[in-house]
Amino acid sequence: MSANSQSTVPVAIEVKDVDFHYGKSRALKDINLDIHRNEITAFIGPSGCGKSTLLRCFNRMNDLIPDARVVKGEIRIDGVEIHSPEVDGVELRRRIGMVFQKSNPFPRSIFENVAYGLRIQGEKRKAVITEKVEKALRGAALWNEVKDRLHESAFGLSGGQQQRLCIARTMAVEPAIILMDEPCSALDPIATASVEELILDLRSDYTIVIVTHNMQQATRVSDRTAFFYMGEVAEYDFTSKLFSNPSNPKTEQYITGRFG
Ligand SMILES: Nc1ncnc2c1ncn2[C@@H]1O[C@H](COP(=O)(O)OP(=O)(O)OP(=O)(O)O)[C@@H](O)[C@H]1O
């Protein structure tokens, strides 16, 4: 499903006719969706309708779950089918970063949390690591708050700062796409506002897909929204259109709070 067939914005992720199963259970049914580059796309919908499953398909995180698989269809990222033999799952996950619901810093210093991915990639040059850590922390709007305590434990940061640190850690390895699975659900309104501001700033450099239960958040940050219902994309459109004039009665019922 294209949110706008006239759109000239390049497609970063192309989902075609995808069915996904956990064992015998069909969690995604015939999904068709184009995610556009340098846009923020929100996935909304009631619990259990498949939002996180599709998100985790994009970086093949579901590969790690036994008996879970795409049984039909294609997912193309920058034109390449991600299940084809030439695509390495580890390299794919470097290009497609992920930020989770609960911030998950490592029990290391602020600096080492951000340097981690670079070290895993084999980067040994101290000056390069230092420069990239600073760049990522600046990009995550955290530098000024942490520059004097880089070697202190990440656990000393507030919840909102820890989540921005996790975003910095994701950015340090320079992914093209960032997937966010309810990144603000554990944060208070002030921390949520700072993470949302950051997400909006990141749009110029990244393609972002965000799963959220917070409809105000979808309207504040996203360009397009996909409404999921029972394993299907029931509606996909520009966020302003979907929230002001939805085409599907189910979307309207959901966004007006008639079910959840
Ligand atoms: N690891 C798993 N094994 C088996 N079934 C799963 C697994 N993860 C999710 N499911 C099932 O797949 C369906 C879709 O789940 P998914 O987590 O994608 O929904 P969601 O829309 O993201 O829900 P929520 O908003 O509650 O996070 C649900 O029926 C869920 O129970």
Automatic annotation (TrEMBL):
BP term (GO), one: phosphate ion transmembrane transport
Keywords: ATP-binding, Cell membrane, Membrane, Nucleotide-binding, Phosphate transport, Translocase, Transport
Membrane topology recorded in Swiss-Prot or TrEMBL: Peripheral membrane protein
Keyword rRNA-binding part of the UniProt annotation: no
Ranges of residues in domain ABC transporter: 13-255
Keyword Cell membrane belongs to the record: yes
Gene Ontology molecular function: any one: ATP binding
InterPro entries reported in the protein's UniProt record: AAA+_ATPase, ABC_transporter-like_ATP-bd, ABC_transporter-like_CS, P-loop_NTPase, PstB-like
Subcellular locations according to the entry: Cell inner membrane
PROSITE patterns named in the record: ABC_TRANSPORTER_1, ABC_TRANSPORTER_2
GO cellular component, as recorded: plasma membrane
Described purpose of this protein according to its UniProt entry: Part of the ABC transporter complex PstSACB involved in phosphate import. Responsible for energy coupling to the transport system.
Protein name: Phosphate ABC transporter ATP-binding protein
Species assigned in the record: Luteolibacter pohnpeiensis
